[in-house]
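Table S4 entry, Iron complex transport system ATP-binding protein.
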Amino acid sequence: MLIADHISYETGKRMLVKDVSFSIRPGEMLVILGANGAGKSTLLRMLSGERTPSKGSLTLHDKEVSHYSSPELALKRAVLNQQNIVNMAFMAQEIVMMGRYPHYQNNPSAKDREICEEVMKLTGTTHLAERSYLSLSGGEQQRVQLSRILVQIWDIPNALLLMDEPVSGLDLQYQQQTLAIAKALSKRGFMVISILHDINLAAQYADRILMLKNGRKWYDGTASEVLNTKNIYEVFEIDSDVFTNPKTLKPFFIPKNTTVNLSSLS
């Protein structure tokens, strides 16, 4: 279980995240929503252990996240960042195998190779295995990176999977596939936390949605509980219509047209 208890993060005189509390259990998928600058990525960096809360406590499996060593934490959680810079011409399969580094010292075992092959098949990247990572499209690189972080915790019970905008560079097919994989992993017992910008994808896949504004937790609940026109306007400052999808019984968000008057510009 992951428990954030009144955590805040301050840098200089700016409070990027303030007094946020929530928890997630194995078997849940939580999506974080909020406008740009709401504190989503900063919150995720605290959850990953990359940043230490200025105030409050953060525990993973009853132990403070800051008390884990880096090798210990690597066997408890994996993080898919927005950007993953690779400057050397590794093959895609070598990038994926990097996710197994916490599991061996010198050479990967047959099990490590088997997990990498299984995950690459799942993410649709097997045909990219022997291609240079630098030759891949942005979306292909993103799917290879997804494979890398999945193999890291593939065989770890109750592991924590953190994803920062995992579908931003993907086409419609792979957006759905990526989130379907995340959802399936949560049903397998993983704790999955993902930042998304697409409200409808959040409604479709999340067990719970955490809405942030100005670094604070604004709403926390199921899609049906928190996704309505009032809450969306408060968090995103956009007018919308919200309907219930009759097939899924999940909310469906449609933004209202926004007009811009250019005649006032000189």
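The chain has nine helices and twelve strands.
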